[in-house]
Request: fold
Amino acid sequence: MLLLQFSTSHYCRKARLALGYKHIDYRVENLTPGIHALRLKPLTGLTTVPTLIPSEGAIALGDSTQILHFLDQHQPTPSLSLEDPAQAADIWLLEDWLDESIGTATRFVYYDYRAGEGKAIDPSWMSQAVIRIVRSQYGMTPAKVAQARLRLDTGLEILQHRWQTPFLVGDRLTAADIAAAALLSPLALIPTYRQAHGWLFDRITEIHHHCQEPLPPGLA
Ligand SMILES: N[C@@H](CCC(=O)N[C@@H](CS)C(=O)NCC(=O)O)C(=O)O
Reply:
């Protein structure tokens, strides 16, 4: 399998965690932000990574949720879901919420930090230019960043409650745990989140070990 990605994208981390969990061999092709659409559009009609090409000539999958569902069909064991229909519904509902709401809120808060207090992480012209482009692409105004922060606060309360047991749903790792670990991982570089939510980074670390994926920046 070939995974087209941005190496730093938290949505690509989600796909890599799922591939690692299932012990699937894959190669990565790192795309350059800015010219990535030239490679992706003809494949999926979309411009986002991750994109997975299961085999040469196969239809490409251009969305991380679609990739997780495909991997479960392609290699059912270990499953990313659970047998019980109510638990399975819960897993995919959480996965969708994490993907659509929490992953985008993380992006807003993370890039706001990298452009301000966290500039020292990489003050290079190149890195700051990428951060400026991302902030403008997603319309990251101070009001929208404040909204994202509130959304993350509520989300983290819910997750802290559910992650009292090792897994968000049921008694083993599922797509919900993988989505949460990947989509919240950029917060590991932000000191206020590290201090307030130690439990979160313990879970993220455990899940990365479980899926044999290198730890994200801040935890490595
Ligand atoms: N819902 C999508 C979101 C993926 C996404 O937002 N990817 C970003 C990188 S983190 C991207 O490719 N942005 C480039 C673009 O939009 O052109 C998924 O789950 O795959």
Q: What stands out?
A: The pocket of glutathione is lined by residues 6, 9, 11, 37, 47-50, 63-65, 99 (CB under 6 Å).
